[in-house]
């Protein structure tokens, strides 16, 4: 095992030296041209391509020569790809999800649910960010926890809509998601409040009192109250409006959802529940994103016809409960074939295992998803789904210069990044796990802290 780790490290360091990356890291204002590599743009493939970046943005992508004066990086024999986007993630919002003091993704207030904003609790120095970055992840959509969350450790009594007095009515909303980048620095927030999050299906039923029907009625009533408030704010301020079940902050946060301007991420698994959500979205004029959709392949045509995107984990193939009886690893392929825009998630909340996003995409390919669709599902599709098309997740002129140079196919687990740029700035190829590995590997000098001298 030690020999294998050393060999892998030698390969990566050798590739770094071959690319001429031992020099000072590139700054955002530098003109950098990556030449000779196999370029995956997110929507196409360019052999022997050239990617030019300057000022934090991509200037050009094609097959031409590097511009005069540019710092040239020879990526011959390598693969150049956009940075990956982790969706349904907790990166920057949780260090140890089971330790409440380090988890800012959940909210237990009895008077605040929809207005909960994860962007205020982001930690740019989280040790989870470099680990994810070394998996090629350069951006993430950070979402609050709720009883239907797909990953991490959560407890229903610790999530939005619950408190010492039990679930209040309504408590169907977990809060608002944010987009971050994973570059070193003090400010990782890209855009706050990009979507509202709510559980449906079994989890939503639990919040609403135990039944799916109750959750649906409660949800519609909530929308009616939000619209009533939006039309009568002055009367509300005068205390001249009938009592409403939500706080003013929650009502304000839900106005863009009720008006169809803010997407609503709905966690749902069962095919029957998916159809109910699609019907709800059409009747109420909502812009929805399905999260999970483990039985989505059964109703793929209906999802596609509704133009609703899906965030999914292609490894979800076990009937862990009755709402996932038809879960299968061909779900991603079937949804894509039907014309659904999909984004592939990492594992366990995409925090400590966000780096496995590319592995999941590779597994989806092995179960029928076309390779180019898998690349799109972890790059350009997440940007499109969250209304930031062309801003990141793609190698194209004008997009953020999030560029990763790989030793080989990025969906192959043995491939490693040899250079990572975020907003045009080169990032260090290290993380806390790597530093600990190097410290203790071989038991050499420095392997023990000063308080533990060698015997």
Automatic annotation (TrEMBL):
<keyword id="KW-0732">Signal</keyword>
<protein>
    <submittedName>
        <fullName>Imidazolonepropionase-like amidohydrolase</fullName>
    </submittedName>
</protein>
<dbReference type="InterPro" id="IPR006680">
    <property type="entry name" value="Amidohydro-rel"/>
</dbReference>
<dbReference type="InterPro" id="IPR032466">
    <property type="entry name" value="Metal_Hydrolase"/>
</dbReference>
<feature type="signal peptide">
    <location>
        <begin position="1"/>
        <end position="28"/>
    </location>
</feature>
<dbReference type="InterPro" id="IPR011059">
    <property type="entry name" value="Metal-dep_hydrolase_composite"/>
</dbReference>
<dbReference type="GO" id="GO:0016810">
    <property type="term" value="F:hydrolase activity, acting on carbon-nitrogen (but not peptide) bonds"/>
</dbReference>
<dbReference type="InterPro" id="IPR051781">
    <property type="entry name" value="Metallo-dep_Hydrolase"/>
</dbReference>
<dbReference type="Pfam" id="PF01979">
    <property type="entry name" value="Amidohydro_1"/>
</dbReference>
<feature type="domain" description="Amidohydrolase-related">
    <location>
        <begin position="306"/>
        <end position="413"/>
    </location>
</feature>
<keyword id="KW-0378">Hydrolase</keyword>
């Amino acid at each position: 095992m030690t020999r294998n780790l050393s060999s892998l490290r030698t390969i990566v360091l050798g590739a770094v030296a071959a690319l001429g990356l031992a020099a000072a890291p590139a700054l955002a204002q530098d003109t950098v041209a990556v030449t000779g590599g196999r370029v995956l743009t997110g929507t196409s493939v360019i052999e022997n391509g050239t990617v030019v970046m300057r000022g934090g943005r991509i200037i050009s992508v094609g097959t031409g020569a590097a511009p005069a004066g540019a710092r040239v990086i020879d990526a011959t024999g390598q693969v150049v790809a956009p940075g990956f986007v982790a969706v349904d993630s907790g990166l920057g919002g949780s260090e140890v999800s089971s330790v409440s003091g380090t988890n800012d993704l959940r909210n237990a207030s009895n008077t605040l649910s929809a207005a909960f904003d994860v962007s205020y609790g982001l930690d740019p120095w989280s040790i989870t960010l470099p680990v994810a970055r070394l998996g090629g992840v350069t951006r993430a959509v950070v979402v609050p926890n709720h009883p239907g969350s797909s990953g991490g450790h959560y407890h229903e009594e610790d999530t939005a809509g619950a408190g010492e007095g039990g679930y209040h009515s309504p408590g169907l909303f977990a809060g608002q998601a944010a987009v971050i980048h994973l570059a070193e620095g003090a400010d990782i927030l890209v855009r706050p409040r990009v979507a509202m999050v709510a559980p449906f299906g079994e989890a939503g039923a639990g919040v609403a009192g135990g039944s799916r029907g109750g959750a649906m009625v409660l949800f519609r009533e909530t929308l009616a109250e939000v619209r009533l408030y939006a039309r009568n704010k002055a009367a509300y301020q005068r205390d001249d409006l009938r009592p409403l079940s939500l706080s003013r902050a929650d009502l304000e946060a839900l106005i863009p959802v009720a008006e169809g301007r803010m997407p609503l991420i709905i966690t749902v698994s069962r095919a029957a529940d998916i159809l109910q959500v699609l019907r709800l979205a059409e009747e109420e004029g909502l812009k929805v994103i399905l999260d999970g959709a483990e039985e989505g392949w059964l109703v793929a045509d209906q999802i596609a016809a509704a133009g609703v995107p899906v965030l999914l984990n292609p490894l979800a193939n076990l009937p862990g409960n009755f709402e996932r009886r038809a879960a299968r690893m061909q779900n991603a392929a079937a949804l894509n074939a039907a014309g659904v825009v999909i984004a592939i998630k990492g594992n366990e909340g995409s925090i400590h295992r966000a780096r496995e996003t590319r592995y999941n995409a590779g597994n989806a390919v092995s179960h029928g998803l076309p390779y180019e669709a898998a690349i799109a599902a972890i790059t350009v599709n997440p940007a499109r789904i969250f209304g930031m098309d062309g801003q990141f997740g793609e190698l194209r002129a004008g997009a953020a210069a999030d560029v990763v140079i790989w030793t080989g196919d990025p969906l192959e687990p043995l491939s490693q990044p040899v250079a990572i740029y975020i907003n045009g700035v080169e990032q260090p190829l290290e993380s806390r796990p790597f530093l600990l590995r190097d410290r203790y590997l071989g038991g050499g000098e420095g392997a023990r802290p000063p308080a533990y001298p060698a015997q």
